Amino acid sequence: QVQLQQSGPGLVKPSQTLSLTCAISGDSVSSDSAAWNWIRQSPSRGLEWLGRTYYRSKWYTNYAESVNGRMTMNPDTSKNQFSLQLNSVSSEDTAVYYCASAMSDCSSSGCYEGYFQHWGQGTLVIVPS
Amino acid sequence: DIVMTQSPDSLAVSLGERATINCKSSQSVLSSSNNKNFLAWYQQKPGQPPNLLIYWASTRESGVPDRFSGSGSGTDFTLTISSLQAEDVAVYYCQQFYNTPRTFGQGTKVEIK
Fold this sequence. Notes:
The complex is a heterodimer of chains A (129) and B (113). Helices cover 0% and strands 53% of the residues of chain A. Chain A is built from no helices and 12 strands. The termini of chain A are far apart. In chain B, strands 2, 6, 7, 8, 11, 12 and 13 form a 7-stranded mixed beta sheet that branches. The chains are: A mainly beta (129), B mainly beta (113).
């Protein structure tokens, strides 16, 4: 059973960098049948997918347009975890941040992922205005 | 981006009665490659992360009670709770995984009447 444990500060000053880590147990960040995601939730934006990283013979990373250019996701194979860094934060980045796994669902027609079976506990990050 | 729109925003249902939540996508999430709808449903209770209920529009996740069912295809989908229990009070979200960015509906709050 996959478990995700988040860590990181809950308060970040404006213009600084938000950094969170998601530690994985029960699977490998290098698994070729999983994708590792960050999602945030706020009253103004609802549930917002931020990006994913996954390994399929090489590493791939995709980001949402809303954070592209400010966000970096990095897998850490030595610690079996992945991270989120969001630069130049503002009060609009105040949200509960979740990491989540999407496992590949395979059949004769191929393998697909994108629904989120496992979630971290969530981290409330506040950026004061 | 695919926009997901849920209706209603909230509903109150008596215990044991049926609850129906609708979700509409701005474009079809039915894939010709596997003939499946790339649509999932989640339940979220206060202070908890969302919990996967249904994927491929109608496949129940392991451990989810059979009073939860999903239906629909293309752009129109429904989550039905056949007999509402007290523990079903929550906010429900649909989500498309047809493409990136993954997008969610705004949520439907279900309460007891």
